[in-house]
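Closing statement on the zinc ion sub-project.
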Amino acid sequence: MRNLTWLAPAIALLVAAGTACAGEGDPRPALQVRRLASLYGMKEEKALPGGRTEFSGNGHVLIVAPLCPGALMDGRFIPLDPPPTGEAEGMAVRGNALEALTEALVAAMVGPPPAVSVPAPAPSASPAGGPAPADDPPATVRKIVIDPGHGGDFDGARGRQGLLEKTVTLDVSRRLADLLRRHGIQVVLTRDSDRHLSSNLREDLKRRVDLSNHESPDCFISIHANYAASPAVRGYEVYTGRPEAVDERARPPAAELDNASRRLGADAPDDPSTRRALFHALQREFRSESRELAESIRVSFRGLPTEDRGVKTAGFYVLKWAEVPAVLVELDFISNPEVEKRLGNPTHRQELAERLARAVGTFDRELAKTCRETR
Ligand SMILES: [Zn+2]
């Protein structure tokens, strides 16, 4: 096999020469994965489910997906930090991820032929940033729990014109549920009317999570609208659970431990410390999937007439105890009079629901599974 290590500096030159594509907020120059792969003789490109793309050539196979924190090179997991971004010209990598991928390509070209075969892709391909569920229902999200924030005694935030957060969250959730159901996804709403689940706030939140854990969906989305003292603040935010919110010494309720064990495919062990370890392993596993779902939503919300305030972490109760990939979406700031007017408009709420549905369509658990299995 030819020694191709000389190509590594060539990549650096290419990037420096300004052939890189524009980043999204990240100032570091990026390079299209397609371009990088082709330098190493991998010219065949194939779209796989979940927005993944397979590059092949010279007997090697590379699988990359936008926002996936890793790539598969001949079945070997290559961590990519930051994850590849989906750009108009195709997926791009930057910074450490660009270096890691280049190194992996070089190693693959000069090393022995691949020993691990890459599993055959499932049928039904969906290109990156794929179509709405209308065209291609995601095969891997079959059931989802949607949690319209607040309700009943709990109004949530109140806009300056009097619009209530609980009204907005319920309507957007119902619209989202309707869209997803039309595409064959089973939807469970934590509430389908203006009501609370308990007059005690903590118990209300607990019941939402219990309901979700009982249903064992593929993911959990809690929908909210934000509030700030300044009327100028606006923008959407997507939250995932905070890593440190998982306290290894915490004793989760027994029922949650049993569920965790079941989901990990093991019989629930009697030993409490093993059960606790299983629970925390599961929490860690869900964290990366939650992040993927959050990023899907963020990408889908781009282009709305407001600000992208990014993906964040928080120790929200519903995120901490949900036993599935879980996110909390703050649609926008109801405290901003302009936003309040928009949130009061059914057409805009339908648009929000459609964008959320698209995000669920591009969130593909199979991808996360592939990453995990090869780690
Ligand atoms: Zn809220």
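Residues 246 and 320 are 7 Å apart (CA to CA). With this model delivered, the sub-project is considered complete and its resources will be redirected to Aim 3.
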